[in-house]
Design brief:
- This protein has helices spanning 24-37, 69-82, 134-137, 153-164, and strands spanning 9-18, 42-45, 60-67, 86-88, 98-102, 122-129, 167-169.
- It is an alpha+beta fold.
- The chain has a single domain (4-165), classed as 50s Ribosomal Protein L5, Chain: A.
């Protein structure tokens, strides 16, 4: 890109494992995320009560890790290699973010199946920004990002093709 202020970049990568319950499975999910990312996972809690699923407001139901900068780049490369560098078009939203799933943690290089842990899949969400997005998040005098400065689905797909050699499949 010719204009540096228009060049998108990866703001963060969020890796999430939803367990649906507290206890032993949640501890195992935290252990898996810790092994994959080398970061300490944060426990996520339910925001609403759903009696059909047996979930109460404030109940721990999963864990997540937020990766930024170099760590995000490295993890994303590993996760995309599991998906054989192919992402479906429906994985990109209209704000230019991307999400995809990985069915088993043992697909990662160097990870072996542990019968004590079991099988855990995970969701990977990637948030893209441009320089200047801090204006919307700053504490004093936050402003809205103009429509022409927001990232589109097509720009994100082009970025992924160029930077990560990803094939976008219909």
């Amino acid at each position: 890109m010719s204009d540096v202020m228009r060049a998108p970049y990866i703001a963060k990568v969020v890796v999430n494992i939803g367990v649906g319950e507290a206890g032993d499975r949640l501890n195992k999910a935290q252990k898996v995320l810790g092994m994959l990312t080398a970061h300490k996972p944060k426990v996520t809690v339910a925001k609403v009560t759903n009696r059909d699923l047996g979930v109460r407001d404030g109940m721990p139901i999963g864990c997540k890790v937020t990766l930024r900068r170099k760590d995000a780049d490295e993890f994303l490369r590993k996760a995309l290699s599991i998906r054989e560098n192919r992402i479906a078009t429906y994985s990109f939203d209209r704000e230019g973010n991307m999400s995809f799933g990985i069915s088993d943690y043992t697909d990662f290089e160097g990870m072996k199946y542990d019968p004590e842990i079991g099988i855990f899949g995970m969701d990977v969400s990637v948030v893209f920004n441009r320089p200047g997005y801090r204006v919307a998040k700053r504490r004093i005098a936050p402003k809205r990002i103009p429509r022409e400065h927001r990232i589109t689905r097509e720009e994100t797909q082009a970025f992924m093709r160029e930077r990560f050699n990803v094939e976008v499949v219909d």
